[in-house]
Amino acid sequence: MATTFQEILDRIAIIDRDVSELNRLKSRLPADRPYSPSLQLSFDKQINNLLNERIGLMDLGILNPPEWLLTKKEEFEILSGSRDESKPDAASLSGDAPSEQLVLDFLRAIPKTEIHLHLEACVSKKTLKFLYEKNGNPLTDEEIEEKFNFKDLMGFIQVFFFVQSSVKEPGDLAYLIESLHDYLKANNIIYSEVFFAPSKFIQNGLDFDEMIEVMVGKIREIKTLDGTDIRILVDVSRSFGPENAMNNLNRVLKVRHPEVIGIGLGGAELMGPAKDYAEVFQVARESGLRTVAHSGEDDGPWAIWDAVTLCKAERIGHATSAIQDPELVQYMKDNHIPIEICVTSNVFTGKYVRKEQNHPVRYYYDQGLPLSINTDDPVIFNVNLTYEYFKLYRFLDFSLDEIIDLIKQSVFATFHPNKEELWSRIESEIIKVAESYEYTPKLPIAIPA
What we know:
Number of helices: 19
CATH class of the largest domain: Alpha Beta
Radius of gyration: 22 Å
CATH superfamily of the largest domain: Metal-dependent hydrolases
Strand content: 5-15%
CATH topology of the largest domain: TIM Barrel
Largest sheet: 8 strands, parallel
Strand order of the largest sheet: 3-4-5-6-7-8-9-10
Distance between the termini: 48 Å
Helix content: 40-55%
Structural class: alpha/beta
Number of domains: 2
Low-confidence stretches: 71-91
């Protein structure tokens, strides 16, 4: 699709006005009213949709562009609705104020890793429609869109259950992995660690071992195809209690596939404190599995203390409340416990973060905490990893050099068996891409093991 340059400018001006107005109204919400969380989520959803539309406008082809818009080297052509994504939109990133589109293109082009990602939340709406039709319950596009038009946290949970309900047999999980692969490729994510929550599927009669075989088979097929590397962390969710968590762990312990690397404690945080799962984590650690935990997203820093001292989780997902306890921040820094940062997700859930500018990621970075940038639930929240990094640039004053440092930190927060080799590959590609943008990054220093 192509449009005129003036039409794009006019629409961007309208979007910027509407976003400012929505932010102003959101700031006036009282914090102590029972209706505030639902309204907060509605504001955030609409603001995010507008910002995504703004980004999409910058990707449109331009009809009859003004001469000043064309680069001197004529490195790309502006056609009626077509565009060469492999070439930058402007000559250089080295100036004081490069265009947002140029920054986005650069962030999209460089390789990345992602390690806080839920498989069910990566399934495209097209795949969902296919699965429901395949399994005898066809839905219209409108019905699927309505499911995703949630207005509160309970609605978000219902979307998650809706996605899980599309899976009726182990073979259906191959389609979820394919949809995940599409997302990874679109954002040049070459290595990922993905949460798989088996409990609901098992309750519905699916066999754990068969599900794992299907997913591992598809993961290996993808790696052979283009080198994309996917690992699985099995969710031992709080939502089903400690006994179920131990049952899931015992199932994992029987798996002999290197693609299944460990467990993660997810689910509603206030339903199950981490300390209730200390024994599960101890057995997992002693068996050689990797361990991570969602914590400090919907509970205070005391919950994170339990996750890192009692469960001895190797990474913490979200940890937005850690900022309330400087001693905890220092402990996590000293013990090299990375935080899996999910900016958009934290704004949507809204417990501790109401807008991107107030996210503690800037403070954590300045304090020297090891970090990893992630999306959590990209399809449900309508975000992607490229835009998560862009939000750091746009709203939290991260420079491109700092973002590259974060990309390196994200590599070293993974459970990849050879992080140095993985970073070397990514670093080489970043240098190559940066050259095409006439940008010389100040590469980050070595990261502690």
